[in-house]
Amino acid sequence: MNKTLRQRFWLKVDKSGDCWLWTGARDDKGYGKFRISSNPDHFTQAHRFAYSLKSPLSPTETLDHLCGEESCVRRGHLEKVSRRVNTLREWKERRNEKRNSI
Q1: Among candidates 17, 10, 81, which has minimal Cα distance to 46?
Q2: How many helices (H) and strands (E) does the chain have?
Q3: 16-70 pLDDT, tens per residue?
Q4: Spatial separation of the C-alpha atoms in residues 94 and 2, rounded to whole Å
Q5: Cross-strand partners of 72
Q6: Residue 35 and residue 37: Cα distance in Å, rounded?
Q7: Does domain 3-100 sit in CATH 3.90.75.20?
Q8: From residue 63, how far is each of 13, 42, 55, 95 by CA, in Å?
């Protein structure tokens, strides 16, 4: 992997707290966006890039943020799960948030 790409990635991460927060661009859901080529339209999600630095991750594999923070890129806060499991967890979390707001 291009060391410059790795260095550029870590320059955009705030490691001052328990979650390592992406400080660069984000999408409309709050997930970090990291440009991985000179093409301005070629982005990957920052948490997926961070995870892939240590373990391969196919485009069909999903990561769940165990901390619940979409901008977190800390590998220990990410778990590789099926899309179904990720969706069920997200649904359960939203349901609990809705209950707590009543």
Answers
A1: 10
A2: 3, 6
A3: 999 999 999 999 999 999 998 877 788 999 999 999 999 999 888 999 999 999 9
A4: 39
A5: 21
A6: 6
A7: yes
A8: 18, 20, 12, 20
